[in-house]
């Protein structure tokens, strides 16, 4: 238990290790290739959940919504491990990296279990049902717009 307390209390300390640039014999090209690749991966891993969130907000009644949120958390945490790997070239935050990796592992397992749990329901889901629901939502929005227009016309007539 003492090691756990020590780990947590020193989570942001990095004086136990040198920055990655000074571990081994990194050439400038190899180091920057590593850093820039990790930063690019991190950026993609943060854009993808943003797109998922945008999609979730635009669609109503999405089936299996918790799985979407788990995917988002999983992707963000995966990206965070790449970001910390890039940062470690200057700041060797191996404790924070280990914690991020533990969180990534836990959320990854939760996502996998959720997919295993929901797979039979996903297989049963009929694409036509989703398409029909989408078409009904489009019609509903069209009718709501028409109703609103009729209300405006009625209000104008009442004000005359």
Automatic annotation (TrEMBL):
> Which spans are transmembrane here?
31-56, 68-92, 98-116
Keyword Ribosomal protein listed: no
> Which UniProt key words apply to this protein?
ATP-binding, Coiled coil, Membrane, Metal-binding, Nucleotide-binding, Transferase, Transmembrane, Transmembrane helix
Where are the coiled-coil regions?
133-160
- What domain of life does the UniProt record list for this protein's source? Bacteria
Question: Ethylene receptor 1-like N-terminal domain: which residues?
Answer: 34-123
Query: Which InterPro entries would you find in this protein's record?
Result: ETR1_N
Protein name per Swiss-Prot or TrEMBL? Ethylene receptor 1-like N-terminal domain-containing protein
Q: What is the lineage of its organism?
A: Bacteria, Pseudomonadati, Bacteroidota, Cytophagia, Cytophagales
């Amino acid at each position: 238990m003492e090691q756990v307390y020590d780990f947590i209390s020193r989570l942001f300390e990095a004086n136990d290790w040198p920055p990655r640039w000074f571990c081994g014999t990194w050439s400038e090209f190899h180091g920057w290739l590593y850093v820039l690749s990790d930063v690019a991966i991190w950026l993609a891993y943060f854009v993808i959940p943003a797109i998922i969130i945008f999609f979730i907000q635009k669609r109503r009644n999405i089936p299996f919504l918790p799985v979407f949120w788990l995917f988002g958390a999983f992707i963000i945490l995966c990206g965070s491990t790449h970001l910390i790997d890039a940062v470690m070239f200057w700041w060797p935050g191996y404790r924070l990296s280990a914690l991020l990796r533990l969180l990534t592992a836990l959320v990854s397992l939760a996502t996998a279990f959720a997919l295993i749990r929901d797979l039979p329901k996903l297989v049963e889901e009929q694409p036509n049902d989703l398409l029909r629901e989408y078409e009904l939502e489009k019609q509903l929005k069209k009718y709501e717009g028409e109703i609103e227009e009729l209300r405006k016309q009625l209000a104008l007539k009442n004000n005359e």
